[in-house]
Amino acid sequence: MNLTNEISAIQQQGIINPAEITTMLLDKLNQADHTTLLEALRVTLPCFVLRTQGTERKTASDKYRTATRVIRQKSTPKTSWKVAEVRDAWQARLDTIIHIDGESKKLRDCVKADLLNYANNLRNQADALNRNADEYQALAAKLPDDTTTLGMIAPIETEVAA
Q1: Which of 23, 80, 89, 96 could make a disulfide contact with 67, Cβ separation 3.0–4.6 Å?
Q2: Angle between helices 34-73 and 80-94 in degrees, nearest 10
Q3: CA distance 97 to 110
């Protein structure tokens, strides 16, 4: 059982409300045996963990930016708590985990090549997202007005419109 596929199957039934999807997914999981549940978690959890770590990485990065902005606004900090705040934010950022070529590393353990590789991976992901956005924009351009849904247009019409 692949939870992503199960969610897609539920959405194909016309159900798009997250609460309804969750309820239907939980019903399927309640009916599954132990081995099927473990397999579903084995496939799904890595993506969830990556997403959670990404959120933590962004939070640490935001804290660091905020703390350094406070320091930059006043060239010489008058109180030591500002310096401590920057130091703490930097240490938190160094503890964030990034994934490079299937390996997980703390930011503090990365060398220049790791950081450049990670930056390149992020740029590739951004390019992929931009291509997806372009595709959806092209699909939207094929619709004649704001009331026609994409499902109302025949595949041949979308090719002619392109």
Answers
A1: 89
A2: 150
A3: 10
Would you say the C-alpha torsion 40, 45, 47, 48 has a positive or negative sign? positive
pLDDT over 90 at 123, yes or no: yes
For the stretch 79-108, pLDDT in tens is 577 777 888 888 888 988 888 888 888 999
- For 109, the token pair is 């353990």
In which residue are the tokens 């060239």 written?
75
φ, ψ of residue 13 to 5 degrees: the values are -80, 0
Listing DSSP states for the chain in one string gives --HHHHHHHHHHTT---HHHHHHHHHHHHHHS-HHHHHHHHHHHHHHHHHHHHHHHHHHHHHHHHHHHHHHHHSSS-SSHHHHHHHHHHHHHHHT-EEEETTEEEEGGG--HHHHHHHHHHHHHHHHHHHHHHHHHHHHHHT-SSSS--GGGS-HHHHHHH-
**Whole-structure pTM value:** 0.47
Q: Rounded to whole angstroms, how far apart are CA atoms 64 and 109? A: 18
Contact 53, 97 (CB under 8 A): yes
